């Protein structure tokens, strides 16, 4: 795949900035606009920049974990946040909070809603990555013969109504 | 009783789980469960025979009145004797049969124990639904046992046919059970029989129950699965398909007949079906050259006979049924064992390839001859007593319409039974051996003692019960009383005097001997007759016809409903999803709200409308996707104006990502829409779109107006107030998402996971070019059973 210097450079700057923004959304969400869902989507948007720059391989190289693993991890974290209060004798998803002072940053208030939001964040990121994985590769490979199938064959197939497609295959 | 059922299950699971480690010793392990049952039953026999049944109850789902109620009365004891007594002997026999175990042999043992447990469940259940569950479990285990040799296509086809027929019958029976249970107000069989429901619906339910019983007991026209099931190893056939499972239908008819025989179609239906089955089974048995198939058709014939005895509701005839039930279990299992021994040692069970046996075979041949004599009804064997009792019952107490005809059928059927019993004996003795066939049997190695032992034990019982009927008298009489409380059945005896029944027996024997002596012309006549009625479809053909019809029909329906056209799918979904909510929504249609709050909404609305219209008319796909994005951005703008930054933020990011993903997919499609759809499609599409738009608009108005009419109109206010103190968050939207409505969010992200998995699967299968051809289950290889 041909790569463009301008795009590459721009993405190098933008990608991490947007990721930081997404983390900001995630952590600020409880009090300001944002939250795990928006944060995850923003991270997904950042990933789409990587995709524009280098295709699906670039997306794969950006994350060490497989997309499905990220998604599952998120769901596990969110579910754990929901279940742990039951084990502690509370209601489902009951949240607790702590406040503490950090030098220079001032009072920090952390609630147990944050892990839940982190779970949501991971689920959304995993979902976006899975979509790139599923539809993002340039040439679809035939699962049975292993041959590369060019995009326009698939396209022509998708265009025809069912019965015509049957006829065409024969 | 629960302990025993659990024991069967556990032993079965252990044997299946350990695989082939035990080899054929698995059958000895398996024998523990039936042996324990026999011991337990003997311990309780006295009380049960005196009319005090053993009862155990367990509540399952109290609210639905579902219970695992078990009850062992004297008739149940007779069935238990069959299931567990023969079960134990068959286990020992199987140990001899599988002297060279193949992979999967041990599994047979495990499944057989599980089957025995399920069968005991049928016999012991005092609750219609519990009986149904156990009934279906016997079907399933029978399926697995027939198809255990899973590389043999004939075994697979036979197993499939067996489970399709009995399973379909079972479902019909379930309908009948529910109808009867609902009308009676109880599903307890004992209560039901004490206080039987009446009415037209109950009669319909009874017919449904009979269908289930007929399929299970291989009655005409459902009997074709039983000969097919003979591909199973002989111990399995001896146990399931002659002694126990096929008796389940008979058992049910016997249970219900005393009360329901007088209800309109019951007695007539049972008698007609039983009579047809008895004759057809006997005729077909006569034409078999395979000893095992001969016995299979003989079993069908005898099952028809049992139906004739139990279906009348007359206790003196039912008493003969109980005796025949025990007698048939003993002699038929022994005969199957003999056939298995012959097959095992000689390698064939075709009468044309048998030429008599060496001296070491005397016990085996004796068992075969005595068993066949009992089957034919010769004195002084148990089979004779049972048949005598049956004839006597019909002669003396057949006080219902058609009893004379049924008596004639029984006599003819008995002649046929005599004839095929003779054929069996002649075949076993080698008199039917063809000259050109290899003479293998005289030099065959005689079977081991453990192999013949069980059959000998059954034969000893047959002879003993014939010479001294007192040993079964109490059981038979108590069982009859258990079926119909309050009656006093006569004693079972070998010599009941020189009466009509004895004369009929003599007639049967005389005609049977004559037939056997002048066999050739009879056989010729029979061949001609069967040629003449060839145009009548057999049950086997009927089954295949139904199966093919079902498959073809479902293919047609699928072709119409799932025609592969995305526009049609979409139209159907949209119309259903919009029309359904639109109808109730119009009844609460509120007045139009204020349309414009601030002036800046007007240009935003124009952007949204223009982009939406453009997206629907433009012909380039990418452009349409971008225009949809523009609609979304416009909406985000409206959210900002309304003061909902969270919503706007989410909308913006979602639109961006959605557009990117759109483009990913659109790369695989042509740049433009090609207009290949027929002209009629355009107005339909416009109509569906308009309908959807209107519905969404109305629903938005209605749901916005509905907020003021709920009980707590200020719920949003309350959420805002409680967000900071209770949930420690100032962003109410986020607090709702993670706290107030956190469980919803959890559900939603789970849905995301499912959706992601679905999308990935869709993307992968969409690229699969060729599909593997699916095998046609009706194209089973030809069977030898269509003889």
Give a verbal description of the structure.
The complex is a heterodimer of chains A (170) and B (787). Chain A has 170 residues and is mainly α. Chain A folds into 2 domains: 5-138, no CATH class; 140-170, no CATH class. Chain A contains 6 helices and 4 strands; from the N terminus they run αααββαββαα. Chain A has helices spanning 5-28, 36-62, 67-87, 113-135, 151-159, 162-169, and strands at 97-102, 106-111, 140-141, 148-149. In chain A, the strands form 2 sheets. In chain A, strands 1-2 form a two-stranded antiparallel ribbon. Chain A has a two-stranded antiparallel ribbon with strand order 3-4. The longest helix of chain A has 27 residues, at 36-62. The radius of gyration of chain A is 22 Å and the shape is flat. The relative contact order of chain A is 0.14. The model of chain A is unreliable at 140-170 (pLDDT under 50). Chain B has 30 helices and 4 strands. The relative contact order of chain B is 0.07. With 787 residues, chain B is mainly α. Residues 769-787 of chain B have low confidence and may be disordered. Chain B folds into 3 domains: 2-517, no CATH class; 564-709, Four Helix Bundle (Hemerythrin (Met), subunit A), CATH 1.20.120; 712-761, no CATH class. Chain B has helices spanning 2-17, 26-49, 74-97, 105-124, 128-146, 153-184, 189-194, 200-216, 225-228, 234-243, 247-260, 264-286, 291-310, 315-346, 362-376, 382-397, 403-429, 449-467, 470-483, 500-517, 519-532, 539-561, 566-585, 601-617, 621-642, 645-666, 681-706, 715-727, 732-740, 742-766; strands spanning 54-56, 59-61, 66-67, 70-72. In chain B, helix 13 (291-310) packs antiparallel against helix 17. Chains A and B meet through helix 2, helix 3, helix 4, strand 3 and helix 5 of A and helix 26, helix 29 and helix 30 of B.
